[in-house]
Specification:
Residues 25-213 form the Rab-GAP TBC domain. GO terms for molecular function: GTPase activator activity. With 275 residues, this protein is mainly alpha-helical. The chain has helices at 2-5, 7-13, 15-24, 28-39, 41-47, 51-57, 62-71, 88-103, 113-121, 126-140, 150-166, 168-176, 181-190, 199-212, 215-229, 232-235, 241-249, 253-256, 258-266.
Amino acid sequence: MDMLNSWDKWMAKKHKKIRLRCQKGIPPSLRGRAWQYLSGGKVKLEQHAGKFDDLDTSPGDPKWLDVIERDLHRQFPFHEMFVSRGGHGQQDLFRVLKAYTLFRPEEGYCQAQAPIAAVLLMHMPAEQAFWCLVQICEKYLPGYYSEKLEAIQLDGEILFSLLQKVAPVAHKHLSKQKVDPILYMTEWFMCAFSRTLPWSSVLRVWDMFFCEGVKILFRVGLVLLKQTLGSSEKLKSCQGQYETMERLRTLNPKIMQEAFLVQEVRGDGGRGAPF
């Protein structure tokens, strides 16, 4: 709590302690506030006081509104916030996504932004969620949600080159099967694993992501690839391209389990972090 109340002092002098706190997991009661501080969303909101209200009351571009409307019920449909059509969760999700299309009309709306905004709304009100979304799109994952997806393709190539160092067996197999990174890592990275991992693991990954940035997504991706395809034993049951893609689509729950995954991402498993 003291960390949040005197944030600037902590950021200036004790960044390592903040990182360790985020790696250990932010207490649920503080998570929403901590994410706003870590992302810079709180500062953005203060710098642009009233901006969200202006965007919220503006009509918006019909071409984006229709697409957003169609996506609302697909986000965490079993969560109490989003279970009912027209319920407050879906309404707030619509408001946040519409506001972003007005804030960045040249980018508009990308489907992968919806689960990101939904996770934020589970932890904070709409205005705060909007500014955290802005930070994710502009500071953490710049270019990810633009029409041509150039940034995600580039990061796919970087992930693949890192894989050669971390898990050469997996790298060789994916090369041989001609499985392009874009085929398996697009949803992982663009949704920050919110549609891939179990909920408790998502929250721990996001705690570290907000503190340390995109490298956390790379680390998670490398852990999943290594644990799935990293040895000849693991490859026995996925000889072809189809089997390999199927294996990456239906990951073993054990490797996604919170304690195991966080330990691997932090490098506590005795081998150091993937990079």
